[in-house]
Amino acid sequence: MKRLKVTFNSPVVLGFIFISFGVLALGFLTGNLSNQLLFMTYHSSLTNPLTYVRFFTHVLGHNGWEHYIGNAAYILLLGPMLEEKYGSKRIMQVIVITSMVTGLVNYILFWNVALCGASGVVFAFILLTSFTSFKNGEIPLTFILVAIIFIGQQIYDGLFLQDDISNLSHILGGVIGAVVGYRLNKK
Q1: H-helix or E-strand spanning residue 119
Q2: Which of 11, 24, 64, 82: CA 20 to 30 A from 33?
Q3: What sign for the dihedral angle of Cα 151, 153, 159, 162?
Q4: How far apart are CA 161 and CA 69, in angstroms?
Q5: DSSP strands (E only) in 18-80
Q6: CA separation (Å) from 10 to 27, 99, 184?
Q7: How far apart are CA 22 and CA 121, in angstroms?
Q8: Residues 20, 121: contact at Cβ < 8 Å?
Q9: How far apart are CA 98 and CA 59, in angstroms?
Q10: Phi, psi values for residue 135, rounded to 5°
Q11: CA 30 → CA 16, 24, 25, 37, 130, distances in Å?
Q12: Cα–Cα distances in Å, from 153 out to 76, 81, 116, 142, 157?
């Protein structure tokens, strides 16, 4: 019988999860000051260099253990399959693009709202996953249903619920995942 070994099968996804966990631990140790300084985007002066850093790093910060676990579960479920299909470089690009777009939109549109967490990345992965069996000239029914269910729920929540969840980040992440999925599979 062959011996089983643990493999580091998805370097970008695992790296993202481990770094996010480290950021979460640092947040607990600093009383959330590290999140406010580096891992949360909000309307701050454009002369502050950290404003630009936070446009990208806010996806690593989470507002507590439950927030982290919710995002990490989806990323660990979907990410390795996506990284295997599209490659580490593409998945890193999806994460970076999603963080930049959600950070910038939050900065421009929501002056009084701080944003942290990887929910936009989760929604990008969800919509990107629905394109894994895409063929040119066809739109997968799974994509249509996922878009209606996930994006529709976010639109509904954004219009009718008052909570601390950035529904627009979810929608933007979903749109990024859909666009990337379509473009990568169009060939």
Answers
A1: helix 119-129
A2: 11
A3: negative
A4: 23
A5: none
A6: 25, 20, 19
A7: 18
A8: no
A9: 9
A10: -125, 145
A11: 21, 10, 9, 11, 39
A12: 22, 25, 20, 16, 6
| 115 DSSP β-pair partners | 41
The model's pLDDT over 15-51, given as tens digits with 9 standing for 90+, comes to 999 999 999 999 999 999 999 999 999 999 999 999 9
* β-sheet bridge partners, residue 166: none
Closest CA to 169 of 92, 59, 50: 59
Residues 6+ apart with CB under 8 A from 81: 129, 132
Query: Residue holding tokens 């994460």?
Result: 95
Burial class (CB in 10 A: 0-12, 13-18, 19+), 38: middle
Of 66, 43, 59, the closest CA to residue 99 belongs to 59
> Got the DSSP string for 120-167?
HHHHHHHHHHTTTT--TT---HHHHHHIIIIIHHHHHHHHH--SS--H
CA 53 to chain centre: 16
Tokens (6 digits) for 163: 């909570």
Task: Answer for the pair 175, 101: CB distance below 8 angstroms, yes or no.
Answer: no
Sign of the CA dihedral with 168 first, then 175, 9, and 70 last:
positive
Consecutive sets of 10 residues in the chain, 187 residues long: mean pLDDT of each?
85 98 97 95 94 96 94 95 94 96 90 89 89 71 80 75 67 84 75
